[in-house]
Amino acid sequence: MPPSAVKAKLRHIQPLRALFLQETNFQIRYNACHERGWTDSYLLKIDDATVGYGSIKGREIADRDTAFEFYVVPPFRKLSSLLFRELIAASGVIYLECQSNDRLMSSMLFEFARDIRADVVLFEDRTATEHVMPDAVVRPRRRGDHVFEHKVEPVGDYVVVRRDEVVATGGFMLHYNVPFADLYMEVREDCRRRGFGSFLLQEVKRACYLAGRVPAARTGLENTASRATLVKAGLRVCGFMLTGRIAG
Q1: Mean pLDDT score of the chain, rounded to an integer?
Q2: Measured between alpha carbons, how far is residue 183 from residues 84, 101, 229 in Å?
Q3: Under 8 Å between Cβ of 69 and 13
Q4: Element (H or E) spanning 240, and its range?
C-alpha cells in the first residue's frame, strides 16, 4: 500500500511524540498548543504500519493551516519526503513552521517551502554567571510590592529591588515540554541597559534548576537588547523559528 496520513486523536500520537521529544531534547516552543487543543494530528502509515506522525496548528488559533511537528521513526526515515507529501495532501496546510534545531522538520521546510524567513531566536543555557550588583537584590515578589506597569511580559514571581524600588521582574513559565522552562523578564524603562535584566535572569535560572526544570528562552530576532541580556546571563543561541509557504 502507498504511504498515507490519517487524522488521529492526540492520544494516538503520544507514544511517537515521546520518541520525538527524547530524540530532539530541546525546548519545543509550541508544545503547549497540543495541550490547549489548538492542533490536529495525523498518523503516518506505510503498509498499515504506523511509522510516524505530523501535527498542524494555525497561524491564528482558529485555523489549521501550518505544519509544525513531523516525526518518522528511524527505520523509515528515508521515506520522510513521501510521508510529508501525504501529510500536506491530507491536511491541506499551506504553511510550514519549524525550529532550525529540528533537523528532520528543517529538511522538510527547505524541500517543500518557499519564502522562508526567521522571526524568533531560541536560547539554551550554557554557563552559570556570577553577576553582582552591590546596590540591588533579587528576591521573590511579595504582596505589597509596588510594581511598575508592564508593557510586554507578565509581572514575574521574582523582582530586582534597588533602593526599595522594584526595577525589574521575571520568572519562568512551564508551557515548554518537560524538563524545559521559558524564562522571561521585564526591566523598568528608566532602568534599562544597566545590567538588571541579566542579574535577574541569573537568579531566575538558579530557581528554575532548583524547581527541577532546565532554563531556556526565546526572543524576537530584531530584539537586540533582549538577545544581549540573555547572552550576558549565560545563555546561547540554539536555533531560530523558521516559517515558509508550501510551494505550489
Answers
A1: 96
A2: 33, 19, 12
A3: no
A4: strand 235-246
At 150-206, the pLDDT tens digits run 999 999 999 999 999 999 999 999 999 999 999 999 999 999 999 999 999 999 999
Q: Letter for the amino acid at 65? A: D
Q: How many angstroms separate the Cα of 120 from the Cα of each of 37, 97, 216, 239, 243?
A: 23, 11, 13, 9, 10
- 3-state SS of 38-68 is CCEEEEEEECCEEEEEEEEECCCCCCCCEEE
From CA 30, how far away is CA 17, in angstroms rounded? 13
- Tens-digit pLDDT profile for residues 89-137: 999 999 999 999 999 999 999 999 999 999 999 999 999 999 999 999 9
The grid coordinates of residue 65 equal: 493551516
Listed in sequence order, the residues at least 6 apart from 47 whose beta carbon sits closer than 8 Å to its beta carbon are 1
Cα 231 to Cα 241: distance, rounded to the nearest angstrom = 18
Determine contact, residues 163/196, Cβ cutoff 8 Å: no
The answer to whether 4-118 and 130-232 have equal CATH topology is yes
CATH number for 130-232 (one of 3.40.630.30, 3.40.309.10, 3.90.850.10, 3.40.50.720): it is 3.40.630.30
Reading the block at residue 207, the C-alpha cell is 530557581
Closest residue by Cα to residue 200 from 151, 136, 152, 145: 136
Residue 117 CA: distances (Å) to CA of 55, 95, 114, 121, 237: 21, 12, 9, 12, 17
